[in-house]
Amino acid sequence: MKLIFERSRAGLRCATLRPMEVASYNLEKKYLRKDVKLPEVAEVDMARHYTELSHNAFGVDSGFYPLGSCTMKYNPKLNEEVAALPGFAKVHPLQDADTVQGNLHLMADLGASLMELTGMDGMTLQPCAGAHGEFTGLLLIAAYHESRRDHKRNKILVPDTAHGTNPASAVMAGFEVINIKSNEEKGVDLDDLREKVGPDTAALMLTNPTTLGLFEKNIEEISKIVHGAGGLLYYDGANLNAIMGVVRPGDMGFDVVHLNLHKTFSTPHGGGGPGSGPVGCKAQLVDFLPQPVVVVNKKGKYELDCPKKSIGKVSSFYGNFAVMVKAFAYIKTLGGDGIKESAEHAVLNANYMKAKLEDIYPTEKRYCMHEFVIDLQKLKNETGVSAKDVAKAMIDRGMHPPTMYFPHIPGVIDEALMIEPTETENKETLDNAVEVLRELYNMAFKDPKYLQDAPHNTPIGRPDEVAAARKPIVKFEGEY
Questions:
Q1: Within this chain, do residues 403 and 267 fall inside the same structural domain, yes or no?
Q2: Residue 264 domain boundaries
Q3: Is the pLDDT of residue 161 over 70?
Q4: Residues of 204-222 as b/e, b for ≥16 C-beta within 10 angstroms?
Q5: Measured between alpha carbons, how far is 248 from 242 in angstroms, rounded to an integer?
Q6: Are 256 and 277 in contact (CB under 8 A)?
Q7: Is residue 57 part of a domain?
Q8: Distance in angstroms between the alpha carbons of the first and the last residue of the chain
Q9: Are 264 and 216 within one domain?
C-alpha cells in the first residue's frame, strides 16, 4: 500500500481553517522550522488510508493471539466504557484531592484488591509497565538493604529461563546479575542456588509459573534458601494469570511482586494501549514505596501521602489512571469466584491444546499451567523447517504466531514455540489452531520450502530481520 506521503498532491486539503479572530503572535525565527513537510490529501483519502492501515494490523479483536508469556486475552468493551465516563476521563492529575475523591477511592480499592490477590501488605499503582514495575521493585529492595546498612548485598540471582527484562532491570537498578541454572525438571537447580546464594545476595527474581508454563514445585525450599541467606524474593507477575485467585505469591514466600494490568487484568496490551505495572510488597518494605500513595485521613477522606522512607516518584503524577479503571472494572465484574475461574480456564485451555499436539510436537510430559512450550528441533533436523517457519506460516492462517525462541536453553530447548491460548478462547478456536499446527507439521515433510518462504498472503513477505534490527528505516525518505 502507498504511504500517506505518496498519496500527497499539492493543493489538497482535509479542512479549511477559519480566518483568525485574534491578534497573531510571531515567534522568533530561531524557534521556527525552515521547512515543514506535511502530506496534502483530501479527507476521504486520509480516511481510506488509515482504514487500510488498520486492516493490516493484527490484535486480539482480529483473531487467535497465542503469544506465550504475554497473556493476550480479549479485552471486554465494558471496561472501555467505564474508563470513558466523564468523571474518570476528564479529570486532571493536578486537581485538588477534594475534587477527585471518587478517583482516589477507586485507586485505593484497586490497590486493596491487588494486595488481597497477591498476599502483599502495600501497593503502588505508579509504574507504567511490567519492566518499570521490576525496576521499581528492585529499587525497594535496594533501599531496604541500604536502610539496614547491609551495603554488601549487590547481587541479584536470576534463573536461566527468566524474562529478558529481569536481568536488564537488575542492572539498571545498580545490581550485578548472577545466573541460576535449571534442573532436569526445568525448575531452579537447588544445588546451584545454594552454591551461589550468600551474604552478597540482595534478591532472587523468579516467575512462578515459570516461562516454560510449569509451576515451581520447590518454591518453599527456594524461599528458605534465599531468606536464610538474608536475601529477598521478587515475583515477576507476568504469569499470574495462571494462579490468580488460586494461590498467592505472598503465601509462597515472595516479598515483592509486580503485576501487569495489561496482561492479567485484561486491559489493552502492547500497541493496543499503555501498560501498568503495580508493585506490591510485604510490611518491611511498605515505608519505601514510591510517593504519593492513597490514604484515608482522620475525616474519612482520601488523600495523597508520602511514605516515611519513600524512594521518590517513579512516574509523572500517579501512572496510567485509565488503565487502572479498566482493571478495576474487570476485577469487580468477575469477583473473587470469577477471577479464580478465569485462571482455571486458562490452565484448562493450555492443557487441552498441549494434549492435542504432543503426539507430534515434543513438549513437557507433565501438566502445564497457562502456557506450554513445543520443541521443533526434531522437526528441523528431519525437514529443515524451523520454529520461525511454522510461526510465519500461521500468519497466512489468520493467527498471530506464538512467542518464538523463548525460553532458549542451549542444548535443551533451541527451537521453541511458546503457546498461551488464555481463558477467553473457546473450544472451536482451539480446535482450529490445533488443526492448523498439525497441517503445518505434515506440510514440513511434503513441501518444506513453502513454509520456509511463508508468509505468502501479507503486504510484506519475510524481511531480512537482522538488517531490519540493525539498520531500521523508520521515516519516509522519498519525494512527495
A1: no
A2: 77-333
A3: yes
A4: bbbbbbbbbbbbbebbeeb
A5: 11
A6: no
A7: no
A8: 16
A9: yes
- Cα distances from 133 to residues 237, 256, 279, in angstroms, run 10, 10, 6
Q: How far is Cα 336 from Cα 326, in angstroms, rounded to an integer?
A: 17
Sole residue written with cell 492462517: 397
- How far, in Å, CA of 287 to CA of 22, rounded? 53
When pLDDT is cut at 50, 70 and 90, the band that residue 185 belongs to is: confident
Least confident of 27-36, 83-92, 185-194: 27-36
In terms of domains, do 321 and 414 share one? no
Residue 127 lies in a domain: yes
- Give the per-residue SS3 of 61-89: CCCCCCECCCCCCCCCHHHHHHHCCHHHH
C-alpha cell at 362: 515434543
Q: What is the dihedral of CA 295, 297, 303, 309, to 10 degrees?
A: -50
pLDDT, average across residues 152-168 = 94
Whether the Cβ atoms of residue 220 and residue 190 lie closer than 8 Å to each other: no
Taking the C-alpha atoms of 174, 175, 177 and 183 in order, what is their torsion angle to the nearest 10 degrees? -140
Residue 272: pLDDT over 60: no
Q: Indicate if the pLDDT at residue 480 is higher than 80.
A: no
Total domain count for the chain? 2
8 A C-beta contact, residue 285 and residue 308: no
Between CA 304 and CA 298 the distance in angstroms is 13
Report residue 285 as a C-alpha cell: 518494605
Last residue of a domain, one of 333, 357, 389: 333
pTM of the model: 0.91
